């Protein structure tokens, strides 16, 4: 495994990486010998991030069969980071060049397959494997535990809470989340996340000002450790991710796993992976209408809690462990000239 994903806090790539490492350790410690950022000879080299030193390593025969994990494309970086030209064009070309160095590509969303093909990659070398979260880390807490955490935050038990999670950037739809808080002063809004990319975050100065001047019912927690995020998912009445573009957001899977009802902007990419498990919204007006409806009649969220549990079962660690085992075994066989049939 080659990755620096866990060096930058508050991003989904790091969460997905940690979940996979945990899965391999818990389920296949006897079957697979996994090394992290080790440049000794290996049968398979799975790249989770596109660091320059990793790119250079792809030219070594010691790397065996090279597997690339695609968590983003150049176009999905729009609204996340702000780079001046020509640095932007150079970096975007580098991203695709890195992917083309791979013998096999894994995407976390099937809608990415056609986009990668459009960038010149071979469709036959691309496989879709969804993200997942462990229910040992993200789970429904007891009513007493939820009440205790609300008390710790100073939130009344009967207060309607809308929770969102992700980096503070335009792509995540933070502007709509903020506007919803301004429009609904009787509802508590909480956003967990910060500037993982620092000052090169697109719109950094504007969002910094928003955080410093947020209304009293809007809380920006900053980057929250994954071990603490479970508490926020559990105390919210509704999880909202108003992103304009996503891959396979770990935050949504985490919300599902904690039994939280989920409200999302209606994006094509969601329909391909989690259709039927969440409430769709075309934009701000739809989000605002549903939030107010749910606040007035909270029983309508019961069905969405049930859907979250169903989604958790589909994208469980148990289900994905077999998929990853079969995938790595197949790649090992290809690397060593063994017939997979």
UniProtKB/TrEMBL annotation:
Which InterPro entries does the UniProt record give? Glyco_trans_1, Glyco_trans_4-like_N
Q: Which SUPFAM superfamilies does the annotation name?
A: UDP-Glycosyltransferase/glycogen phosphorylase
Boundaries of every Glycosyl transferase family domain copy: 146-278
Arranged from A to Z, the UniProt key words for this protein are:
Transferase
One annotated GO biological process: lipopolysaccharide biosynthetic process
Q: Which Pfam families does this one have?
A: Glyco_transf_4, Glycos_transf_1
Tell me, what is one Gene Ontology molecular-function annotation carried by this entry?
Answer: glycosyltransferase activity
The keyword Transferase appears for this protein: yes
Q: Which residues form the Glycosyltransferase subfamily 4-like N-terminal domain?
A: 41-136
Please indicate if the UniProt record lists Transferase as a keyword.
Answer: yes
Show the stretches that span the lipid bilayer: none
- What name does UniProt use for this protein? Glycosyltransferase
Organism expressing this protein natively = Companilactobacillus nantensis DSM 16982
């Amino acid at each position: 495994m080659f990755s620096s994903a866990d060096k930058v806090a508050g991003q989904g790539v790091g969460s997905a990486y940690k979940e996979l490492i945990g899965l391999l350790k818990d389920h296949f410690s006897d079957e697979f010998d996994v090394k992290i950022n080790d440049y000794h000879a290996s049968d398979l080299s799975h790249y989770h991030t596109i660091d320059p030193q990793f790119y250079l390593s792809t030219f070594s025969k010691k790397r065996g069969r090279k597997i690339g994990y695609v968590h983003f494309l150049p176009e999905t970086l729009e609204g996340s980071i702000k780079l001046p030209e020509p640095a932007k064009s150079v970096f975007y070309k580098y991203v695709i060049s890195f992917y083309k160095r791979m013998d096999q590509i894994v995407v976390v969303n099937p809608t990415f397959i056609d986009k990668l093909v459009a960038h010149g990659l071979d469709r036959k070398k691309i496989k879709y494997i969804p993200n997942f979260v462990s229910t040992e880390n993200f789970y429904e807490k007891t009513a007493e535990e939820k009440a205790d955490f609300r008390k710790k935050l100073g939130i009344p038990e009967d207060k309607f809470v809308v929770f969102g999670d992700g980096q503070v950037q335009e792509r995540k739809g933070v502007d709509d989340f903020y506007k919803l808080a301004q429009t609904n002063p009787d509802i508590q809004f909480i956003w967990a996340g910060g500037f993982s990319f620092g000052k090169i975050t697109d719109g950094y100065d504007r969002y910094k000002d928003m955080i410093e001047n947020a209304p009293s019912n809007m809380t920006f927690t900053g980057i929250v450790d994954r071990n603490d995020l479970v508490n926020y998912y559990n105390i919210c009445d509704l999880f909202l991710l108003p992103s304009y573009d996503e891959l396979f957001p770990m935050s949504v899977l985490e919300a599902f796993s904690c039994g939280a009802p989920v409200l999302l902007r209606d994006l094509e990419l969601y329909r391909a992976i989690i259709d039927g498990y969440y409430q769709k919204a075309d934009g701000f007006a739809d989000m605002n209408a549903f939030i107010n409806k749910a606040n007035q009649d909270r029983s309508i969220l019961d069905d969405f809690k049930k859907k979250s549990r169903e989604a958790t079962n589909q994208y469980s660690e148990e289900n994905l462990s077999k998929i990853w085992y079969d995938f790595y075994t197949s790649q090992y066989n290809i690397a060593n000239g063994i017939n997979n049939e």
